[in-house]
Design brief:
Layout: H1 2-37, E1 54-60, H2 64-72, E2 80-85, E3 95-98, H3 109-120, E4 127-132, E5 148-156, H4 161-173, E6 193-197, H5 198-204, H6 213-227, E7 234-244, H7 249-266, H8 275-287, H9 290-300, H10 308-333, H11 340-345, H12 347-363, H13 392-395
Parallel strand pairs: 1-2, 1-4, 2-3, 5-7
Antiparallel strand pairs: 4-6, 5-6
Helix pairs in contact: 1-8, 1-10, 4-10, 4-12, 5-6, 7-12, 8-12, 9-10
GO molecular function: beta-1,4-mannosyltransferase activity
Transmembrane segments: 6-32, 282-304, 310-331, 343-363
Region (Disordered): 374-421
């Protein structure tokens, strides 16, 4: 009986310390990214690729009112604006191309549409900027020269305040993207606003089975460039394109589940040296709410934790990292500073909600994903049934009015300048 008790105690101690070490490694890596590796993240010339040499492609299932707001935000000087849709629609200011039902591809949903467009939609521009149907362009004057350029995001509230806070937390954590230009294989991509070099895209293609086509593409592109003896060039453009947060907690759970499932499914594309880091990040994302719980348990039952004092100090330090991520997100948003203290108090609950979908995807991976209904920018005349619905402008009263109108050049735009935030 004594042997069993000793083994049980050892097992409990291992759970406490292994969880702490994994989370500690992930936190240390994030701090290293944002303080050291992020040095020089901004390109010397963030508008080296002029608007005329960029084609915008907006991916949609069938949300014309949402797409119209996105098209309105595209600068007039852009090379071409294309809407890649699953159903025909009338959009002012863009050519609409419908993906035929009989098009066969290994890619799924959005990836399938992108692959069809790659094969069948003409492109004379050097770069293609892919946007989701709800990605509103702001402060866009061009692109830095690279193989892939990630434009940062600024999710807008569409329903749940809890979901909105989860997005603020996520944007704070994504500050690490500033270090990705130093990695041979950037850790992930957000497909809602990502620009690719068209020549490289034609070599890599999107024709692979995946539910996270954006991250899978960046890994495959990096591998292709590496095999050609080159170095994959990544740049982050911090323009904070507006996009929509999931409208409900359940939709957010489904989204995070898909992200986790796609990452697990496609991790084999990464070099082996990246796998320990990626596995650690996966475990710590799903277990992030456990850190404060373990700290409380260690305080209540110190006999189960060897080096109890060290454990308590370390766990409190790592617990505080959750607030660091949230503060980073609040700084990126620069909104509602008067309620930041409330947001910070709610951080532990926000972290728990943010992790649920990832935990779901870890234990029950998704093989497909449901398309999320978007909130219209404004109710249009052809949508009288939504006259009582809240729009983006209703839900985000501080949303700049010009964002909802065509992004036309001003007199200052006539003189090319380097775009800096």
């Amino acid at each position: 009986m004594a042997v069993i008790s000793a083994l049980a105690g050892t097992a409990i101690a291992l759970v406490f310390w292994v969880t702490l070490v994994l989370y500690g490694f992930s936190s240390f890596w994030w701090l290293l990214e944002v303080t050291v590796l992020a040095t020089g993240w901004r390109a010397d010339d963030e508008s080296e690729i002029p608007l005329e040499n960029i084609q915008v492609r907006i991916l949609t299932y069938n949300s014309p009112s949402t797409v119209q707001v996105t098209v309105n935000s595209v600068p007039e000087k852009i090379g071409a604006t294309k809407v890649i849709a699953e159903a025909d629609m009338d959009i002012d200011g863009a050519d609409v191309h419908v993906v035929p039902d009989d098009f066969e591809s290994q890619a799924q949903k959005k990836g399938r549409a992108i692959e069809w467009a790659r094969k069948h939609v003409e492109c004379e521009e050097e770069y293609i900027l892919y946007l989701d149907e709800d990605s509103i362009m702001v402060n866009f004057e061009g692109l830095p020269a690279a193989d892939l350029i990630q434009i940062s995001e600024h999710p807008l509230r569409t329903g749940s305040w809890w979901v909105y806070l989860c997005e603020v937390f996520r944007v704070g954590y994504q500050r690490e993207q500033r270090a990705f230009h130093r990695m041979a294989y950037p850790l992930y991509a957000w497909g809602g606003a990502v620009a690719v070099r068209h020549e490289l895209e034609n070599e890599v293609t999107w024709d692979v089975p995946t539910i996270t086509e954006d991250t899978t593409y960046i890994w495959r592109a990096a591998k292709y460039v590496d095999q050609q003896g080159g170095k994959f060039e990544y740049r982050l453009l911090n323009r904070r394109f507006r996009n929509q947060a999931p409208p409900s907690i359940r939709e957010m759970f489904n989204q995070r589940r898909r992200w986790m499932s796609g990452t697990l499914r496609d991790m084999y594309r990464l070099p082996k040296r990246y796998l320990p880091l990626q596995f650690t990040r996966i475990i710590t994302w799903t277990l992030s709410p456990v850190i404060p719980l373990l700290s409380v348990l260690a305080f209540l039952y110190p006999q189960f934790v060897p080096q109890h004092g060290l454990y308590q100090v370390t766990s409190i330090a790592l617990f505080s990292m959750l607030f660091v991520y949230m503060i980073a997100g609040l700084i990126e948003y620069k909104k509602y500073p008067e309620v930041w203290p409330i947001y910070l108090v709610l951080t532990p609950l926000v972290v728990a909600l943010h992790a649920v979908g990832a935990l779901w995807g870890l234990f029950r991976p998704a093989t497909d994903f449901k398309i999320t209904e978007k909130t219209p920018g404004r109710v249009t005349q052809d949508q009288p049934e939504r006259a009582s619905s809240e729009t983006l402008a209703d839900l985000n009263p501080d949303l700049d009015a010009e964002i909802m109108e065509p992004n036309k050049p001003t007199e200052e735009d006539e003189t090319p300048t380097s775009a800096n935030d």
